[in-house]
Design a protein that fits this description.
The protein is mainly β. The protein folds into two domains: 40 residues; 141 residues, Calycin beta-barrel core domain (Lipocalin). The chain is 10% helix and 46% strand. It has one helix and eleven strands. It has an eleven-stranded antiparallel β-sheet with strand order 6-5-4-3-2-1-11-10-9-8-7, with no helix packed on it. A hairpin with a 5-residue loop joins strand 10 and strand 11. The chain is globular. About 11% of the residues have low confidence.
Length: 188
């Protein structure tokens, strides 16, 4: 059994660690110069404006070419959450019975767009860092070469009310695990 003196010592140490993590120092930063958990947030990254083009409700058609050919339709809706630092998306129930939730943001440290997908089937995926090309009005995700599986995806926005996308996932041998294309049209 642990004695009461030992419990007091452990509690004191844990409280001290908690205070160091949660209580910001001068101007909201910890003693080592990093932001404390309660620090004032940095200004909203201007790169988040790129994600604004997703906000709203979209009618989506997906054509899967591999592993099994098929077509699926559903509705996606995106809205800003968490002080407009994350874009949250959700699908209606798809023809296969599943639905998904998405989160997207710009990561100023990684200098790229982060995108997470969560499926009611129990799976989740974080895409590789996305890059935006203003000239082509497209977002691209590409896995680094050292990954066991490779992913390459792209969104193209030909105008403010439509989006086309591609996604190809391959295993370490180069065999295609998923090959899909999609279109989305903004609802008015």
């Amino acid at each position: 059994m642990i004695g009461s003196a030992h419990r007091v010592l452990v509690t004191t140490v844990l409280l001290g660690i908690g205070a160091a993590l949660f209580v910001p120092g001068e101007r909201g930063y910890g003693q080592d110069g990093t932001p404390g958990l309660l620090a004032r947030p940095e200004p909203r990254a201007p790169q988040l404006k790129v994600l604004e083009r997703l906000r709203g409700t979209w009618d989506v058609t997906v054509t899967t070419r591999a592993p099994q050919a098929g077509t699926m339709t559903y509705v996606e809706a995106y809205e800003w959450v968490l002080d407009q630092r994350f874009l949250r998306g959700e699908t209606s129930q798809k023809s296969d019975g599943t639905h998904d939730i998405f989160m997207a943001t710009y990561d100023p440290v990684a200098k790229g767009y982060r995108f997470w997908m969560f499926s009611s089937a129990g799976s989740s995926v974080e895409l590789p860092k996305g890059t935006w090309d203003e000239k082509t009005q497209s977002m691209e995700w590409k896995s680094p070469p050292q990954m066991d599986v490779s992913f390459r995806g792209q969104w193209i926005f030909p105008d403010k009310d439509s989006r086309r996308w591609t996604a190809v996932l391959k295993d370490w041998k180069g065999n295609i695990i998923l090959d899909a294309v999609g279109t989305a049209t903004r609802r008015r």
